[in-house]
Design goal:
- Residues 323-332 have a biased composition (Pro residues).
- The protein has helices at residues 2-12, 16-31, 33-43, 73-88, 99-120, 125-147, 153-179, 198-210, 220-235, 239-256, 260-280, 284-296, 301-306, 406-432, 461-469, 472-493, 499-515, 520-523, 526-546.
- The protein contains 19 helices and no strands.
- The two termini are 28 Å apart.
- By secondary structure, the chain is mainly alpha-helical.
- The chain has a domain at 154-260.
């Protein structure tokens, strides 16, 4: 499998850097399975550069958006899983009745449901697995990789330093991108850059995991990561993550107990530094305030009617290409919107149809979206407020940038209103088809935000899974996060839990609110892989503390 991964990477990246990655990445995941694949998951962004968003904020997109039928990260994750299992099997075997065994069974059930429903609706085996079940396969592989950490001492030592260094590197890349004008939407802010939504979720989890951590030290390593992680969350353009992180902060404070003094010391330090950066950058504080206000305000009256309909969650930003042709059912790429785009709706003159955007809790760009990519792969965002095609994107800074103002909050509110319409329409369809859904190949519903999606796409993980695969799929998703969430709460409450467990716990609590605003778990490759790894680490470390074998 390592040889296949190397060959596939070399084929998918026909450039000198591709040859280097084809050699280095399989060797890395063979030597350090967990650290290697987590490094890929943190650094690689699930969005293409397009002339506006350059390589600085789309680093490693080739691993998730491949020229082949599958993303390159899939064989790489399979290599990491096999390498990890080879280290402990058969000497150590997780108990099936443990939380880890339950999560593996649930993930396998999601794979079976997505595949089986696809076969019943006339898809080939390859299409049903690759188009429907592939994200759940990555979830399952992530679980195996994460649970293996307890038996990999080298990975346990290197994992958190590697993640901290990667987050710091990405913050530096974001700062350079801002200086070069490679921002997500000039009408909202000159400081928000386009990073895939999974990145700020990971950064928020790292930041929250450090709160109350018994091994916290006031040294440059801890302080650097403690500041870099929340700054990444601020500039990453993802309001759903902001809101989810706020909820988890409250939960963490409630569970801190006797560690409140240490927790508040950390919060005070990080808060002062982050506030100093935000207020020192001209206009950034106001932009953050407007972005936050847009999360709670809904456009009403004639404005809501005249604004172009907003678009799906967090996929690739707005484009004005013609609507794509109907998808071939045997093609592995889902004909749906991809939840990895910045949210912000351009002025009505920019276009007539919605594009993909950030989760419901965020604003969404408007304008038509480009032809859909394979599951979990995003089309590159276009400069917002311009009518352009991928081949004609202007260089950053070519067009004048209107200053953000009250109109920005109105655009975001209109976008949020469109996302809420998705929930209403999706629920109506669920009520009309409660036992079977409408099938994985059903065309997009009229009136929803992502009106150019070829397959059914709504801004909610549970509704989309229900509509595509019937009621069993959302039930399994809920069970997955109930099990992971209960273990996560126990780890946050335990004063002796290590940093890796605390970060994994925070991510498993942040993910469910984000999934209520976009179907990340079934529409991307990065989210299910990271979710599986975090949940696997969480239950694996919990088993280690109990002495479960």
């Amino acid at each position: 499998m390592a040889v296949f991964s190397a060959a596939y990477l070399a084929w998918a990246l026909p450039a000198p850097v591709g040859i280097v990655l084809a050699v280095a990445l399989p060797l890395l995941v063979l030597r350090l399975p967990v650290t290697g694949i987590v490094l890929v998951a943190v650094l690689a962004q699930e969005i293409k550069p397009n002339g506006r968003f350059g390589e600085l904020t789309t680093l490693g997109h080739q691993l998730l958006i491949s020229t082949g039928k599958i993303p390159a990260v899939l064989p790489l994750a399979l290599t990491a899983a096999l390498a990890a299992v080879a280290r402990w099997w058969p000497a150590q075997r997780p108990q099936l009745r443990s939380p880890g065994g339950m999560l593996i069974g649930i993930a396998a059930g999601l794979v079976a449901v997505a595949t089986g429903v696809g076969l019943l609706h006339g898809q080939s085996v390859f299409s049903a697995v690759n188009q429907n079940a592939r994200p759940f396969v990555l979830l399952l592989l992530g679980l195996v990789i994460g649970m293996s950490l307890r038996w990999l001492p080298d990975d346990r030592k290197s994992l958190m330093p590697t993640v901290g260094a990667a987050l710091t590197l990405l913050l530096v890349a974001a700062a350079v991108a801002i200086a070069l004008g490679e921002i997500a939407d000039e009408r909202l802010s000159a400081y928000f850059v386009y990073y895939d939504s999974a990145l700020p979720a990971i950064a928020a989890a790292v930041s929250l995991g450090m709160l109350g951590y018994a091994g916290w030290r006031w040294d440059w390593r801890h302080l650097t990561v403690a500041v870099a992680a929340p700054l990444l969350v601020v500039v990453s353009f993802r309001r759903s993550v902001w809101l989810a992180a706020l909820v988890v902060v409250i939960v963490a404070l409630v569970l801190s107990g006797a560690r409140w003094r240490r927790t508040f010391q950390q919060l005070a330090f990080v808060g002062v530094v982050v506030a100093a950066v935000v207020f020192a950058a001209p206009g950034l504080a106001g932009d953050v305030g407007l972005r936050s206000a847009g999360s709670f305000e809904l456009a009403g009256g004639d404005n809501a009617q005249t604004e172009p309909a907003p678009a799906p969650t967090d996929p690739g930003p707005a484009q004005t290409d013609p609507a794509p042709a109907p998808a071939d059912p045997t093609d592995p790429g889902p004909a749906s919107a991809d939840p990895n785009a910045p949210s912000a709706s351009p002025p009505p003159a920019a276009s007539g149809s919605p594009a993909t955007s950030e989760p419901a809790a965020t604003g969404a760009p408007t304008g038509q979206r480009a032809a859909p990519q394979p599951t979990g792969q995003s089309e590159p965002p276009q400069p917002t407020g311009q009518v352009s095609s991928p081949g004609s994107a202007e260089a950053p800074g070519a067009a004048p940038r209107p200053a953000p103002g009250p109109a920005s909050a109105e655009h975001q509110a209109a976008s949020t209103s469109g996302h809420l319409d998705d929930l209403r329409i999706g629920w109506e369809q669920v009520r009309a088809n409660p036992w079977t859904g409408i099938g994985p190949l059903a065309p997009q519903l009229p009136g929803v935000a992502a009106d150019q999606a070829e397959r059914i796409y709504v801004h909610n993980q549970l509704l989309q899974d229900w509509l595509r695969y019937g009621p069993l799929a959302p039930l399994l998703v809920v069970l997955f996060f109930v099990v992971a969430g209960l273990v996560a709460l126990a780890r946050l409450r335990d004063p002796d839990s290590d940093l890796v467990s605390r970060v994994s716990a925070a991510f498993c609590l942040i993910a469910p609110p984000c999934l209520m605003t976009a179907p990340f778990l079934s529409e991307t490759s990065r989210w299910p892989l990271v979710t599986g790894i975090m949940a696997g680490i969480l239950v694996g470390q919990a088993g280690l503390r109990r002495g479960v074998r």
